[in-house]
Amino acid sequence: MIIFIYAILVFLVLRFSVTLFNFLSNPKLNKYGRRFTDMVSVILAPLPGEDISVLLDSLKQQDYQNLEVIIKADDEDEQLLTDKAKGKYLLFLEPNMVVGNGLINNLVYRTKVFNLSLLHLIPTQQLNTAYEWCVVPIKEFIVLNMFPLRLMRLTSSPAFAMVNTGCMFFNAEDYRSNRSRERMETLLANGLLINNTEGANVQGRQLLQVFGNNSLAALIYLLLLIAGPIVMFIYFEPSFVALPIGLIFLTRVMISFLTNENPVVNVLLHPVQMTLLSWFLLKEICSKALQYRR
């Protein structure tokens, strides 16, 4: 038991350290003054009947002029779609996004300066309902709690980028030559891209992708994240439990400031969010196991 307790404490300290690094390094897309004129192809792939009028209106209001917008037809192949795009850069956006003014110029700037093949943005969430407050922050919590985003440019692993594919900005040449994972970066959108209907889309499949679709890794994470603090509450004095509670509190506050969310609400809803995280992941793991047995 004592070994398990030590493992929990080490896990807490490591997660806190990653969150602190993200908080201090502030991995957000900055706003740059230099202007660019490279052609950017914005590719949209809405589902049949999905409303993209808000997204199109926000694109029309962009100060970046050299744009083309390509909307995928129901039966159109994505490869053919990208082949006919004229832009030096390809911007894939999900229909529920709202583009802030200056986004595209800042994407071009960042991609050029760091010679990126792919720049992935985690959008700022617009939380309107109690359900969204309970489920939407879960994905950002996992990513900012596990991955030091500023260092992710040093790896070609796509796992952390797959948590949310709402905005993917590619160098078109690298994308067509299948080199889009060679030099990639993930940043927070910093209010330049807003997701206003994400709550209903949270799925265990998306969360499991953070762990490289490795069910064992996800189970170990849940064991240390959920079962660990419960064991500590049962077997230790309140004064000893103050350490993990303090680290969890500071972690939630820092992540909330990074994602432009209300820290008080996230701290209060932390038990609910962690319960739902466990439910989503366990449900997806069980579903995968049943499919494998068949």
TrEMBL record:
> What parts of the sequence cross the membrane?
6-25, 216-235, 240-258
Which branch of life, at top level?
Bacteria
Q: Which UniProt keywords apply?
A: Membrane, Transmembrane, Transmembrane helix
Its protein name is Glycosyl transferase family 2
What does the record give as the organism's lineage? Bacteria, Pseudomonadati, Bacteroidota, Sphingobacteriia, Sphingobacteriales
